[in-house]
Specification:
binds nicotinamide-adenine-dinucleotide; three-stranded parallel sheet; 10 helices; Rossmann fold; alpha/beta
Length: 297
Amino acid sequence: MTATVIDGKAFAAKVRGQVADGVAKLKEAHGITPGLAVVLVGEDPASQVYVRSKGKMTVEVGMASFEHRLDADTPEADLLAVIERLNADPAVHGILVQLPLPAHLDSDQVINSIDPAKDVDGFHISNVGLLGTGQKSMVPCTPLGCLMMLRDYHGSLSGMTAVVIGRSNIVGKPMAQLLLGDSCTVTIAHSRTKDLAAVVRQADIVVAAVGRAQMVTGDWIKPGATVIDVGINRIDNPDGGTRLVGDADYESCAAVAGAITPVPGGVGPMTIACLLANTLTACCRANGLPEPEGLTA
Ligand code: NAD
């Protein structure tokens, strides 16, 4: 079997198009422009790239983009004061604090100071609790993107067996909650799971969110299963240079799976598209307007 490639780049462009339509309608009918504020503390090069591309795409879908760049040694009180101002600003509907934060800052404290209604990353404990209890919440962008791709490919996920590899708060745990919400039978595997290959072999849906290059090989995959590869790992090429690979060994998994997301061009582009979708959703909720269809969990 050769797997269908789930084209996250194309799907993300479609989602951004839906967001842009929603933004245009909000402007036209209500004179409202959704706004996304991104806060970056320090000079981390990867974070700078992410923030730049988030800002660019925010503007491309017609939203207002606000960037706050703070020095690496910014005291926590100053960062909290910035967030407090953004919480109170009616032009800002979404707030994202780029992680990781410098070591002297308490990430939990900072994230939990964001107004949950503006927490477009879905990391605030209120949103985590709402998601865990099946209530309306802001859903973390990466798992939301994975869920959208799965729903688009399969239609209903009800009754499917899903294995999520990784138990982080930003990917693994919320992913498992979302799959449970769509009535999958869910297993969360992690670094202490015994005989991981055998666990993964049970799955109709495998979500790999580990951060270990090409760890999941084709012999772990049930024939016809869907593999969603969240991992982003840089490895050396045999003939020099480097390249990005996922947590799945693409060639061997694609030979067995029914469908697979590539790296790059799979989950990655969906994450930013879902950030924009969440900002639109937050803006609609803040204004008591109906939420855009198909852009939330
Ligand atoms: P993390 O380091 O917080 O968590 C990794 C998880 O993998 C842990 O729960 C750990 O228990 C598990 N794990 C580690 N070694 C394992 C092993 N040998 N077997 C089974 N499980 C093991 O990472 P994260 O933030 O969840 O990110 C995971 C990966 O996804 C990383 O490569 C990251 O770069 C990537 N990522 C991609 C996007 C995107 O937009 N595509 C977004 C977030 C994270």
